[in-house]
Amino acid sequence: MMLNRLTDEEKEVILNKSTERPFTGEYDDFYKDGIYICRQCNLPLFEAKAKYDAGCGWPSFDDTYTGSVKELVDRDGSRTEILCSRCGGHLGHVFRGEKFSKRDTRHCVNSLSIKFVPRNEAGKYMHKTEKLETIILGGGCFWCVEAVFNRVPGVVKITSGYAGGVTKNPSYEEVSAGETGHAEVVKIEFEKDIVTLGKILEVFFLAHDPTTLNRQGNDVGTQYRSIVLYTNKEQVDTIKKVIERVGRNYKDPIVTEVKGLKKFYEAEDYHKQFYEKNSSNSYCRFVIKPKLDNITKEN
After folding, report:
1. Superfamily assignment of 129-298 in CATH?
2. What pTM value is reported for the model?
3. What is the topology classification, in CATH, of domain 8-125?
4. Residues paired with 109 in a beta bridge
5. Which of 108, 141, 144, 284 is catalytic?
6. Is 141 a known active-site residue?
């Protein structure tokens, strides 16, 4: 991944997570048509039409490009930090429930973290479809699996859902009953030139126990089984090689189910970024917190 050279002032905000003084940023009182990209890696983050005046002294946006911004609990333990999903650069914080916009969301961003691009130049910064690859993974509760991949550079979109079964348009309650044949899974879209499928799979096997049949921790049932659903046949060879390699680390055999994806059903909205919104009391906090820390360090 190519990163832009940063000034000392930009490094202080983007890398050291400092905050620029209010009402001093280049884009605080700035309203032109175009897009805003990450100053460090050029990933498109916000549309100009999502920008509004919140009166807070920093650029404010009530929407993002899908998958471009990640949310984490801030180191102060109370606020929600937002970062570029590709390079991990600090952007600012997100606040909800303030009633400042129709979407009731304020992505409060440092001007030093972003760069404005006029509309007529925006196209060259957008994702090219041929650079993206998709894989479907299930390793227990999808809240936890989503939380893991929110920390992997190169992953541009994560969608929780249901797959691998027979019931059409299943609900969470139906899947939880264990009679649909579906597993709780996440659809992961990633940039192939930044992170490989092999690396995605290595993180996946690190984040759960692939040797326990239909079980992860206290979650028991076929809906919690370990499963990899490939989206093209070219992925199969990589999947087999990774399973063979990581299998040497376990005394019990890997029982991960591997098969082609037939249909993915997106989960209900309240499941999206569940861990980030409920990390203080989330089940995933106790199940995978140590693994989250290790994965963050490795990536």
Report:
1. Peptide methionine sulphoxide reductase MsrA (3.30.1060.10)
2. 0.64
3. 2.170.150
4. 92
5. 141
6. yes
